[in-house]
Structures are given as C-alpha cells and as structure tokens.
Design goal:
Layout lengths: L8 H20 L6 H23 L3 H29 L12 H11 L1 H4 L3 E9 L2 E8 L1 H27 L2 H25 L11 H18 L5 H10 L5 E5 L5 E4 L1 H6 L12 H4 L4 H7 L5 E7 L6 E11 L5 E10 L1 H50 L5 H31 L8 E4 H18 L3 E6 L6 E4 L1 H17 L5 E11 L3 E10 L21 H7 L5 H11 L4 E6 L3 E12 L11 H4 L8 E5 L3 H13 L3 E5 L2 H10 L4 E4 L8 H15 L5 E5 L6 H7 L4 E4 L4 H13 L2
Parallel strand pairs: 9-11, 15-16, 15-17, 17-18, 18-19
Antiparallel strand pairs: 1-2, 3-4, 3-7, 5-6, 6-7, 8-10, 10-14, 11-12, 12-14, 13-14
C-alpha cells in the first residue's frame, strides 16, 4: 500500500479533531435541548474531514474509492443532522422527521453499488498533478439529486436560524450568528467546488471549511454558552412560564421578553423588541412614570377587561455589572387574579364563619338565659318550700324535685361549658386559693354519696404540695368532682381514692399530679381513647344504666389542656380505673388568700334592715328573691322592668338594687346607666347587683362595665345571694 504526503492533510486532520472534540463536548451535554443532534452533526463533520484526509494520503484507486464511500457516512449525516439540530434549537422539535433519512440511505446504497449503475459517479480516475496523485470523479445524474436534497435541508435549517435570530435577545443572537457562520463557510466552499469556481479544481474545499465551522461553533459554545443551561432555562423555563418577563435596557427599551408577556397583555402578534416602556404600557402612564429609573419596585395593577377585573402583580429588579452600573431592568408580570378571588372567597367564608359563630354564641346566650331563668324559680321555690312546715312525704317528694332539678342543671352546664370551649368563649379566672380547702369543698359532698353506697372513700395531699396556689379553683374543682363522681357512680364495691402530689416545680410555677382511683367496672383498652371524645362513653348501654351526657370527660380534658396539663387513664376491664391529670399553677403566698366565711357567717347579712329594690320581670323569681330577702329582715320593693325601677329610684331611697339584665320596655343595662347618671347630680352611689340568667363568658364583665357593682348568675342559692350582698356592701 503506497502512501503519499500532501500539505492538505494537516488542515483536514485539524478540522476533524476540532469537530470530534465538539461532538464529545455536545454529547456530554446531551440533556440540553438539541445537544444530541449537534453531537451527531459534529461527529459526521469529523468523519467527513478524516476520511478525506486519508483518501488524499493513498495512491491506489481502489483505496481512494473505499475512503470516498466511507466518507459518505459523514457527507450524508451533515445536512440531515443540521436540520434536526436547527429544529430543536428553534423550538420546533415536535415535528416528525422520520422521512428525513430515506434519501440518505438511498444515496449510501448507491455509493457502495456505483460500479453497477454509475448513477452517482459516472467516472472515477487518478490524475497526477505535480508531486502527488489526485482522485477525480465525474458526477452522475443522482449525485445532483442528492445535492439538491442536501441543499434543501441546509436552506430549511438556515431559515429557521434566521427567524430565530430576529426574535431572540442579544445573547441568543450571538449564539445563532456563530452557528450561521459555521454553516455558511463550508456551504459556500461546497458551492464553489461544485460549480467549478475552485482555484484548486482537484480539491473539495468543503472539509477544509470545517475548520472555520469548528472555530465558530467553539466560539458559540464557550463564549455564548451554547449547549449549556442558559438555553435550557430560556426554552423550558422562561419561555414556558405563565408569568410575563420583560427586559429593559438603560434607556427603558425592550430588549427581551417571553411569550407569557404577550399572552398576559393580550397582544399575541406584537413585536416588543426596541419599543420604549412608555409605548408598551401606554394605557398606564402613571405606572411608567413611577417605574422609570427605579431599580426595584413592586405594585399591583387592576385591568378592567371584561366582566372579571384582571389583577397583575408587577415586580421590577435591576441587574448590575461589576462596577455597579445598571445593565438592564427585569419586569416580572404575575397574574394574581385567581389569588384575589381566593382572598375574596376566604374573606367571605371568614365572614360567614364569624357570623355563624356569632349566631352560635347568641343562641347559647339565649338558651342559657331561657333555661336558667325557670331553673332558678324551680330550685329557689324548692328551697323556700323545704324551709316551711311539711310532712315527711311532702319533704321526700320536694327533695326529689330539687335533686332532679340539680341533675338537669348539671346537664345544662355541661352542654353550655362544652359549647363555650368549642367556640373559644370559655376562659380561666386565676385567683389565689387554698388547695386543701378547695378539695374539702369539692369532696365532702361526694364522700356522703360514697358512704351511701358503702364505699371506702379517702383523699390525700402529699406534704410537698404548697398550701396556696394561683389558678382557677372553680375549674379545678369541676374536674375533680367530675372524675370522682364518675368513680363513685361506676363502683359498686371497694373504694374510691383521690391523691394530689407534686409533679414538678420552678421558681414561679409548679405542676400538680392528681389521680382518682376506683375499684369499679373498668374500661377496655380499645375504649380508653374514645371516652375523652364529646358525647362518648365506653359503652352506649352505660347511658341507660348510669346516665350522663358523655360530656364530662371531654370537658375535663379540655380544661386540663387549658391549664397546660394532660389527662390519661389506666384501666383494666372489671378491675377498676385510675384517671390521671396534671395542671400547672403559679406559686402564691398563703397570706394572699382571703379567709372563707363560715356557714354561720354566710347565712346572715352584715348589715340589717336593708331597703332593697328588686327589678325582675319573672314572677317566680320575684317570689324566690323576696322570700330570701324577707327572711333576712329586708324591706323589698319590686319593679317589673327598668322603666319602673327608675321611677321608684326617683321617689324612694334604697340601700341596694338587685337588677335583672333582660326585661321588657327597658333592660337592666340602660336602667343602670340612667341611675348612675342621676347619681352624679346628688353625689350618691347605690350598690347595684346584677341577678341574671346571662352566664356566658364575658357576661360578668358586660354587667360590671355597665356600672353595676357585682354579678350573680341564675340559678343561685340563698347562700350565694347572701354572700354576694355581703361582699358588695362591705366593699368601700
């Protein structure tokens, strides 16, 4: 095999190596849009240049023919992969190009079978020119068909690039220009060769021009970020964004924008490149004026376009060079119409929820008032009647009435308490209290119930528990009573025990651990979580056997959580239960608590022969209150409503006014305010106590804010009324 050296081999090898290197680089970035076809294009170019260099290095005709046939793999690949790449690069890769490979395959077959038909090359021969042999061919008919086909592909791809060149920003224009230069150079060289304009007739200049193509492509790849993440971001992110993006230069001219901009502005066919901001947003001159020369800004714009106003959020940000000078400003247009609609819907839903919650609160307040008013009459009249001369059977019946009324009141209180907790209306009332005294008041009545069932009942406080704490004793009392009464109710034999011990403490607070243990029926494992849910009991049949609303444990559990504690149960079926809970209180000195009056002190007034104005529209409650007050040697005058109370106040002198809240003609609030206004003229002050069925959270404050001195909710006992009167009159 005879070889020859020609000076043309070196540039061809350089072109092949450069193209091959770019092909490897593109393949490493094959995830980038168009990188795969570009890699194939470069490999085809490298193969074309390499086999042309090899062909020039051999002397024999068969070897040169073989190299030429092998070179055809690159010759056919270049125009085909050129079109595929340009379609990807210009964003039209969704068009099917399967037909593209039909002609190249035919041409390849004809190249290898040319001796049989000579349609591609009619003659092949070697001619000696100077010091080396040159391979020359005479082209056949099909060669020109293939050439025309290849030129169609090249022209098609070039048109796509030119169109892209017009509509893309500067960075992508530089990329596209580099690609076009890389294409036009070998294309021009090929035209010169085919049409006999070549100064070196024996050489095909096309592979030599691949050096320029490689350099131009290399410049585009590394200087203008061809086949890197920037085009991906442009094609797949920025161009695909629903938001609009406009880039302005330092003179407020548009230098770039994405399709989302035209869609949001409803200008699908406009070209914004080169237009000033004042022209693009001519309908918003004030907005343009505010955004002009502003580096960063944010504003919402409402566009009345059709039945539904469109709301856009505009954000403008500036990009700076290394010296801090503004290169450009980027305007982001974000459609927040749906967000504003959601906000309106949420606002409407919130208003509906608040209205529903208000209606619920009003319903609870009305129910509380309407139920407590007759309950006050039932319990009050029972108390008065029990204090009269009755035979044994009458007392038995009356005590049954009182017991039933108290049970009904418990149910009512449970429902109202739970509803207030659910509505967020129940609040704790911290006050100093003695732990032992609180337990004594809570558990002594329950001890009697335990004795009646022949149960051993005991309670104990460990020595490390401080005597006085700061918290809500009434709610703690409610929890302990609920757990203990349940223990007694569900225990038929054995014992019930209550233990209070110290769990943890800091300088300011301490945590109590309270447990209630019984030897009752117990609770199965699968029911131990359910019992703390509202309206639930371990067994539905318990409601029939033992009674109850199923709210006690739910309320107690919620109250414990409000006291920053937790509640849990340990139980075995038919072996008893132990309910635990923890609560957190503030530490207080024992001197900070007032002494609780003895029962003897609590059943008489500290001041005698009081003149009392009773303002009450319910006749039963009138009789009950009058009965208590007359037993205390008070002179009682009755008014049916606030209007009558004011008239009586102006005519007579009183030491005390008991004022209902809700009455016909004039309620207690308005009457109190009128009385307080009139007192300013005489510099006097008559104590007014609210006696009302309004017992919701905040009601006490409402009555006190209206000018009343104290508050007592219905139903109340004679002792409670006496205590409130004494505390009111004793207050200076």
């Amino acid at each position: 095999m005879i070889l020859q050296f020609t000076p043309y081999t070196i540039p061809l090898i350089c072109a092949a190596l450069l193209a091959f290197g770019l092909g490897i680089y593109a393949w490493q970035h094959r995830d980038t849009n168009g990188a795969g076809p570009f890699a194939a294009l470069m490999i085809g170019t490298a193969q074309w240049s390499a086999f042309y260099a090899i062909e020039l290095s051999f002397v024999s005709l068969p070897t040169k023919v073989l190299c030429t046939n092998l070179m055809y793999f690159g010759v056919l690949a270049v125009p085909s992969f050129w079109l595929v790449f340009t379609k990807h690069y210009s964003g039209q890769q969704n068009v099917s190009l399967k037909w593209l490979w039909i002609e190249p395959i035919i041409t390849l077959i004809m190249a290898w079978t040319n001796p049989y038909h000579e349609l591609l090359h009619s003659r092949r021969y070697i001619e000696t020119l100077g010091s080396f042999d040159v391979y020359l061919v005479e082209h056949g008919t099909y060669f020109w068909v293939h050439t025309a086909y290849s030129y169609v592909l090249l022209i098609w791809g070039s048109i796509l690039l030119v169109r892209r060149l017009i509509h893309v920003p500067q960075l992508y224009r530089s990329q596209t220009t580099a690609i076009l230069i890389g294409l036009l150079t070998p294309w021009t060289a090929n035209i010169i060769y085919l049409f006999g304009l070549n100064p070196f007739p024996h050489l095909d200049l096309t592979p030599f021009a691949f050096i320029v193509m490689g350099l131009a492509t290399f410049w585009g790849a590394f200087r203008f970020q061809l086949l890197t993440v920037v085009p991906i971001a442009r094609d797949t992110v920025i161009d695909g964004m629903e938001d609009g993006i406009i880039v302005f230069d330092s003179e407020n001219r548009v230098i770039d924008y994405n399709p989302g901009t035209l869609r949001l502005m409803n200008r699908p066919n406009e070209n914004l490149i080169g237009r000033y901001a004042s022209d693009v947003f001519s309908e918003f001159p004030d907005l343009v004026a505010r955004f002009t020369n502003v580096e960063n800004a944010h504003e919402e714009v409402v566009i009345e376009n059709g039945p539904i106003p469109l709301v856009y959020e505009l954000r403008i940000s500036s990009l700076h060079d290394r010296l801090g000078l503004v290169l450009c400003r980027v305007l982001l247009i974000h459609d927040i119409t749906w967000l504003k609609e959601v906000e309106r819907d949420l606002r409407a839903s919130k208003e509906l929820a608040e209205a529903a919650n208000k209606a619920k609160s009003e319903f609870l307040a009305n129910m509380s008032h309407e139920i407590r008013t007759p309950m006050n009459g039932i319990l009050g009249m029972s108390e008065l009647l029990l204090d009269t001369q009755l035979d044994t059977e009458q007392k038995k019946y009356l005590k049954t009435v009182r017991k039933s009324a108290n049970l009904l009141l418990t149910v009512i209180n449970d429902v109202l308490d739970f509803s207030r907790i659910e509505a967020g209306k129940l609040e704790l009332d911290p006050t100093p209290f003695a732990v032992e005294e609180m337990l004594d008041i809570a558990l002594n009545p329950l001890a009697i119930q335990a004795q009646q069932k022949n149960l051993r009942f005991e309670w104990n406080i460990t020595p490390d528990v401080p005597g006085v704490l700061m918290g809500d004793p009434d709610r703690l009392n409610q929890i302990i009573i609920n757990l203990t009464s349940n223990a007694i109710k569900f225990t038929e034999s054995g014992y019930v025990s209550v233990l209070v011990d110290l769990e943890d403490q800091t300088e300011q607070t301490l945590s109590l651990h309270i447990s209630v243990t019984d030897t009752g029926i117990g609770i199965s494992k699968d029911k131990q979580e359910v019992i703390f849910e509202a309206f639930s009991q371990a067994d539905a049949s318990m409601t029939r056997q033992y009674g109850g609303t199923g709210l006690g444990l739910a309320i107690s559990s919620r109250l414990v959580e409000m006291m920053r504690g937790r509640m849990w149960v340990e139980s075995e079926l038919n072996q008893g239960s132990c309910f635990h809970f923890t609560v957190v209180f503030a530490k207080r000195k024992k001197s900070s608590i007032e002494t609780t009056p003895t029962p003897e002190q609590g059943m008489r007034l500290t001041k005698s022969e009081l003149r009392v104005l009773l303002v009450e529209d319910n006749s039963v409650n009138q009789v009950f209150a009058q009965g208590i007050l007359k037993k205390l040697a008070c002179t009682v005058t009755t008014a049916q409503n606030g209007q009558e109370a004011i008239i009586l106040f102006e005519k007579q002198s009183f030491d005390l006014i008991l004022m209902d809240g809700q009455m016909p003609e004039m309620d207690g609030f308005e009457a109190t305010q009128i009385i307080r206004t009139k007192e300013k003229e005489t510099s006097t002050h008559i104590p007014i106590i609210a006696l009302t069925a309004h017992a919701m959270t905040g009601d006490r404050e409402r009555f006190l804010d209206a000018g009343m001195d104290n508050y007592l909710s219905k139903p109340f006992t004679p002792g409670q009324l006496i205590d409130v009167i004494n505390s009111t009159l004793d207050t200076p």
